[in-house]
Write the structure tokens for this entry.
Amino acid sequence: MEVGTPVKNELMKDLWAIRILRWFCPAHLLEEIEGDLLQKFAHDVKLFGERKARRRLLWNVIRFFRPGILLRNKLVLNFRQMDILQNYWKVAVRVLTRSKVFVAIILFGLSVSLTACILIADYTRFELSYDKFFANSKSIYRLQHNRFIDNQLLYKKAMNFPEVGIALQEYFPEVKSVARLFPVSTNIEPVFVATTSDGERISFSEPDSFLADNTFCQIFDLKFIYGDRATALNGESKVILSSSTAMRYFKRLDVVGEVLTSSIGMGAFTITGVFEDLPGNSHFKFDMLQSWFNVYEERSLFTWDGFYTYVLFDSPEDMQRVSARLSDFAKSYTGEYYKTRPGASSQFELQPLEGIHLDSHLEGELQPNGNRRIVYGLFVVAIFIMVIAVINYVNLSTSRALQRIKEMGIRKTIGSTAIQLSAQFLMESMILITVSIGMALTAAWLLMPWFNTSFESQITLQLYQQPMFWLTLVGVALLVSVLGGFYPVFVLTRLNPREALKGMLVKHQRPRLQTGLVTIQFSISLILITGTFVLFRQIEFMQNKDLGFGIARKLVVKVLPGVSEEMDSVFNIRLNSVKSEVAMNGISLQATVSSSIPGRKNEWRGSTRVTGAASDEVVRCNLTRVDEKFLETFDLYLLAGRNYSSSLGNQSSVIVTAETVKQLKLGTPEEALGTKIELFGTREIIGVVESFHEAGLHDPLFPSAYITGAGYMKFLTLSLNGENLPEKIDQIKKIWQVHFPDKPFQYFFLNDFFNKQYQSDILMNRSVSVFSWVAIVIACLGLFSLSLHTIHRKTKEIGIKKILGAGVGYLTRELCSHFMTPIGVGAIISLPLSYYLVDWWLAQYAYRIDISAILFVGPFLLLVMIGFATVVFQSLRASRKNPVESLKWE
Amino acid sequence: MAKEYVGEFEEVVLTLVAALQDDAYGAAIAEELETRLKRSVNLSAVHVTLYRLEDKGLIKSAMGGATQQRGGRRKRIYTITSAGLAMLKALKETRVELWKLVPQLKMS
């Protein structure tokens, strides 16, 4: 080997190629490799010169970056850790497969509760996401109207005066944009006709159509498929459709330029845009928006608050500034009008768009809104279920761990550290949790359609796309495994191996922790059962209570009158012929035409007072236009006076309800007869009907007045008799089509319609009961497996007792009483809590069931029975066993 | 050791370890390979092979002295183990056995 003159030492220093080598080369090989490389480098310097030598060195270093070298990095050590992990895995799998019942119960409990949690979490996310999809959602506000009379709040309304938005924009430069929305269908349900390319005429009634300012599409970024969003609503007689509406009329989407003709006399509208259907999480629900045309008169400017007004701001500060000075604005805008009306005033408020769905419960909402309390309540139920399942898990894994004391003793003797013992338990926990999470994710996905139909929600499990959700899931997994592994680790790692090997320790210890946890489980279950039971009773009560009017077998046909059509004598004659023909054919007992029907939210309200009385006697009441058959058709009971003799010529008469008489302070119904009140002119009370629950039982009775006359006759109600309804409906349809060939035949049954208002209660009850049962099943599984373990442990004891003469009855009783204690204590703990909850929940109903002992005792007995059934079977089996077998058992 | 398979390059390196005796270390072996066998090898290949042979128990190593030209780094001197020697002998013998099977042809 030839080596030339030694290369100068400074050349050897600071070679960055060597530094690279140090970064990846195993420490124990580094010195010799470095040495060899440097030797080669010195050789190269002599042969090729320094620069080339450096390049060669770098190349040689890079060549060392190969598996043969890299894999010698501490990997020897890693392999050992892997071995241990593998051992944990093996032991874990063996332990888990050996105890199938335990694993099944744990997996079932955890995955079912996680499924419930995922579904409820997604539901919560959905409810909280309302209207957030609009790009400007944070800067859009709705202008709310609070009306005061006699300096007292009369109502708060979601709708406002027709031009208040325009004035607002003039008054405050901070307001960026304002748009109005007018629900056309409150007065007249519009019907549109389209002529398709093959000349076919298709017509639909459009209950969800609105007039909108051209600024509307600028504030709310509807997703346009065809047409230009910015200009779509400019000009007169334009209309934009949702994609499903376009499909409905034309069976295609590119319908810009087509024409929809109003069959009720509003003219023809050119389609200028098609937008994607609004998602379910919007407080809006519209199928078409028509460009604005004037529907109000000068007189309406301060009397008609029937217009939704949305305001867009640039920044939150702007909104704050405007909000602070709104009362100044209200004074300056309405001051002139209220000058002659002392005590009356209007105030405005800005409601954030994102809060409308859950927090706004005003008069005249676009749709029934959600309830933040229900959303949070369900979330609490989800957490309850999770707590019950985790308690189960902790209990079961604890009692199982205590059976593995010997194993732990041996491990300790061999030299396992505390950390290694814990790792064993954590490994088992992790396996169980990971599997249950996987099962829950799949189950939630599979159950989603069922959840949506049962609870009328529209969740899509968008949660799965959110990183936060997965992080939370990992967090839950870690938390649950630590909780499940905590007690065993805590106890077992502190064991003295000598005692552990004897398997003694825990036999002397009473499982206090477990009993405590089971107690908590049962109090939670009891609260849930009580809640379900109370909700159920309340709904039953509302559906069965005598409403004061007949809702059975009432078929309601939508008349869908056109703009001025109802003043038309031909229209009225036709309507009357429908009525009489239906009666003649014996299809219907009674028929009436009215502007509203009981059970419908009546948007027509007015103020009335006794003629000549001071203005502070004003009473707000619902107004309904009726004909002379109204009282008969709805089985209303006339307390005093008489019914209308005909639907004509009653301009100075009115029929009111007893509640109206009461609020006007007119004494008895008989005394009220003949009194003159102000209601669209002066009218004399000719009849008083008994008050009835027109709007359901959520709300207290509201005054109502019934007048006759033309206009707004929207509903034809037929009281049907006999059987064979489908055939009768068919006959009615034929009669209808003879007289109104242009109008669609749309009908519904009054009792279906009426009970719809309890829908949210029914849904609430359904969800709470489903999830309560889930909770109870999981809790019972916990009790079941716990008793299984306890009895297992006591096998010998039972055998000895039996030999000494104890009977089966005695032993069963003794074993059962052991488990009845947590149920009893749980009941006592839950009682005040459930009482408080029930009281809070029922307070929202105007007519509610009384809180009685049965509401609490019933669920308690049910729970005791379920718990008893869970335990007694096993106790019985254990006590009947042949003592020879029990004693042999170890 | 017959069940342990030794590749051709491994065999060469093993032989060189046996031949170079006290001077058997990575760079020296690489140099011998280049000068005697006219085989261009990379230093890293030699090292990896040495480690592998050591894993197989055919050679053992100890840290040797440092020299100036190595920037003061010590060498790792390899020596052949008896297992390694036995392996070499076995390899040679099998080769001779096989050679005997070949018909003795005249080299033209």
Notes: Residues 152-342 of chain A form one domain. Chain A has four domains: 9-70, 152-342, 372-542+759-888, 561-742. Residues 1-7 of chain A have pLDDT under 50 and may be disordered. The first strand of chain A starts at residue 140 and ends at 149.
